[in-house]
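Query structure, 268 tokens:
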């Protein structure tokens, strides 16, 4: 018994692993860390291979496996796929291949569709997400609601380059959002974990009655639920460790974390 309890105790201190094609998944990490501040975490930004949104399903699966293996080699007890594109294209394959709980992130179509008064909602996401089978299935669940899909061409690249406030960003956002506003959407779903960083820019373009929703908080709650169900909650109340790895320039990732966390370069 003693050996068993020591084993469980030690395993519970193992980190939550999170990965994304780049820095965007930190929007999910922030929610996870706010909800469970005593959990240790390891975040990896695969910025060298960003964007995932234009890659084939096979490529996205291969990169997701690579990221998962890096996190498992670092003893992660659970993996949060902090990327809509990787979730919608690869989570089934990840769950089949690795014996660890996975949490995914998908566009929050359901709450938007349920609450929309104009019966028209907009979704901004990558090509890879909007073309995925998983996304098509969630759209089919809401036949009465008009769903305006828009690929966010170029947005992830600009965010990865640190150009969130550039005139180019503003131009792109206007060209994607104004047609949705004209079609009378009352909800805008952000279907990419990079996009919450664009909310201030988006709010300057769309009228204030349009609600913007993303999946960050829901993912954090689901992560907590699965951790509890698997008896993996870290009972230690010591200061937790938050580790960030990138395989590209650490600068942009450090900036998006407000220089509160150290970022380590690693060629994974
Ligand atoms: N953060 C990823 C997502 O949620 C971005 C995908 C990409 O790299 O294109 O979809």
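Result returned for the query:
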């Amino acid at each position: 018994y003693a050996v068993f309890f020591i084993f469980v105790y030690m395993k519970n201190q193992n980190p939550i692993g999170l990965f994304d094609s780049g820095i965007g998944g930190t929007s999910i990490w922030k929610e996870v860390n706010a909800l469970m501040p005593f959990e240790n975490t390891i975040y990896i930004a695969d910025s060298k291979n960003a964007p995932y949104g234009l890659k084939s399903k096979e490529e996205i699966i291969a990169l997701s496996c690579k990221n998962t293996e890096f996190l498992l080699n670092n003893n992660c007890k659970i993996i949060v796929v902090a990327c809509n594109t990787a979730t919608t294209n690869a989570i089934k394959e990840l769950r089949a291949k690795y014996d660890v709980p996975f949490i995914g992130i998908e566009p929050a179509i359901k709450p938007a569709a349920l609450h929309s008064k104009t019966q028209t909602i907009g979704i901004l996401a990558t090509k890879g997400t909007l073309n995925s089978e998983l996304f098509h299935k969630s759209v089919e669940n809401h036949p009465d609601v008009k769903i305006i899909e828009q690929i966010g061409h170029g947005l992830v690249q600009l965010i990865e380059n640190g150009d969130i406030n550039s005139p180019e960003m503003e131009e792109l956002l206007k060209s994607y959002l104004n047609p949705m506003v004209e079609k009378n959407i009352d909800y805008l779903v952000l279907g990419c974990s990079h996009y919450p960083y664009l909310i201030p820019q988006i709010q300057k373009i769309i009228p204030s009655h349009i609600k913007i929703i993303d999946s960050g908080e829901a993912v954090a709650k689901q992560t907590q639920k699965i951790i509890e169900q698997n008896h993996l909650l870290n009972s230690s109340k010591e200061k937790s460790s938050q580790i960030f790895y990138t395989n590209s320039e650490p600068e942009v990732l450090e900036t998006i974390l407000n220089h509160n966390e150290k970022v380590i370069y690693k060629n994974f």
